[in-house]
Amino acid sequence: MSRNIPTIPTTQRTFLTRLRDSLNESALAVPAYRRFWLSMLISNVGSWLQLVAQGWLILALTNSPLYLGFYGLLRSVPTLTITLIGGAIADRIDRRKILLVTQSSAAALAFLLGFLDLTGLVRPWQILAIAFATATVMAFDNPARQAMVPGLVGHERVPSAVGLNSAGWNAAAVLGPSLAGMLVAAAGTGWAFVLNGLSYLPVIWAVWTLQPARPSGTTSTPLLAHVAIGIHAAQRDRRLLGLLTLLAVPTFLGRPYLQLMPVFASDVLHTSAAGYGALMGINGAGALAGALLVGRVSKYPKRGQLLFFVNIAFATTLIAFAASHQPVLSAVLLFAVGASQTLLMALTNTLLQLIVPDEFRGRVMALYTLIPMGFMPLGTMALGSIGDVLGVPFTVAVAAGLALGFTFAGRRLFPEVYRLP
Question: For residue 16, is pLDDT > 70?
Fold first, then answer.
């Protein structure tokens, strides 16, 4: 007696096969990386909780935008001055040990700020000091964390890991501020700091479970000389120099649009604070979409060429956004700007990770980290000053046009990048 056994249609079977193959190729198929990524996702949300709550608490205590300016400055100084040293240390010491120290230190600082706030002892200078100390810790944390990726997943899964890292950060950037607003309104800023401290604990556990890795760099060379050797190595390799330059110029000329967004919202699109929030959300959604595309586009066989196309897309859509006065069109263009900007960052990260020798990885990734942290504030100062005279939309459009022109020039300046597989 035969039984009618249900069969899976061919189309569904093909989809399931592709899904299984995609999951097997993903960096999340590696248990160590999966634990690390999930813990970092939790920690990133906690970091956004603290970032939003700190700004709110400073303003509540001082009612002074000047203190907010000091806060931003003190968070930037360690990144600009210490990150390269952090990269050199990441090439000399087991990166796992570095992360255990930095993540534990960041957790302790968050708990300290939460304690001061909840007990009513907090003062503005304490917030600024803790912000400076946390940024100093992260200047050592970021290069080591970036440099750990290939060792966790292997070179074949680096594009997937870079895309997942970017997606995790952008997802936290969308979720974290919303949660922070609700938490601060319901329970106050102190509990946001405590929750951020708790969010570091999964990372500490995940890093503790990793296998120790022997550092690839030498420890006999003086530290500052070690930094100089890494910079010289990046200058000598035209591929590395080209990748960093092709990221630095668009970052300086193009990325400041985000800090100048209030001007577009109020003076160009004539929208309210809610409209400004919506524009920022749309940009964040585009950034998240771009991050989710990284793993797929990184499989393209001519990634060097693709990098130039993404650069062109970023500059072109930014020019169009600066010229637009229609809210719907501006929203669509802003989504595309966010997506192409994230693709540019992540694709550059992928190519750097694939070609840099491991002995220089920490220092090269420190240079990569410095570009958005250093060049974007400098670009914001420059474009903001010029925009105050010539108008922000015109200034942003011209700067994006210069970035577009440099991309075409970069094709001739750095043919080694264009030929990257």
Answer: no
Q: How would DSSP label each residue in 45-88? A: HHHHHHHHHHHHHHHHHH--HHHHHHHHHHHHHHHHHHHHHHHH
- At 173, list the tokens: 């950037």
Q: Which long-range contacts (CB under 8 A, 24 or more apart) does 221-226 make?
A: 223/85, 223/88, 223/89, 223/92, 224/85, 226/88, 226/91, 226/92, 226/363
Over residues 203-237, the pLDDT tens digits come to 999 999 988 766 655 566 788 888 888 888 888 99
- Please tell me whether residues 359 and 287 are part of one structural domain: yes
Least confident of 209-218, 303-312, 353-362: 209-218
My answer on whether 191 and 304 are in the same domain is no
Question: Would the pLDDT of 19 be above 50?
Answer: no
Counting the structural domains of the chain, the total is: 2
Tokens of 421: 């597989």
Distance between CA atoms of 412 and 418, rounded to whole angstroms? 9
Instruction: Give the pLDDT confidence score for residue 2 in this predicted structure.
Output: 46
Say yes or no to pLDDT of 46 above 90.
yes
For residue 195, give its domain range: 29-215
> In the structure, what pLDDT confidence band is assigned to residue 51 with cuts at 50, 70 and 90?
confident
Dist CA 386 CA 392 (whole Å): 8
Mean pLDDT of 146-160: 86
CA distance 43 to 134: 14
Residue 296 to residue 398: CA distance in whole angstroms: 32
Angstrom distances, CA of residue 379 to CA of 9, 159, 250, 372, 404: 55, 29, 10, 10, 16
Q: Are residues 274 and 346 in the same domain?
A: yes
- Over residues 17-27, the mean pLDDT reads 57
Q: Note the pLDDT of residue 155.
A: 79
Region 21-44: mean pLDDT is: 84
DSSP class of residue 92 equals T
Clarify whether residues 211 and 123 are in a common domain: yes
Please state, rounded to an integer, the average pLDDT across all residues of the chain: 86
For 123-131, the CB contacts below 8 A with 24+ separation are: 123/61, 124/58, 124/61, 124/62, 124/67, 127/54, 127/57, 127/58, 127/61, 127/71, 128/58, 128/67, 128/70, 128/71, 128/74, 131/54, 131/71, 131/74, 131/75
The domain that holds 45 is classified in CATH as: 1.20.1250.20
Cα–Cα distance for residue pair 217/360, rounded to 1 Å: 7
Phi, psi values for residue 119, rounded to 5°? -90, 0
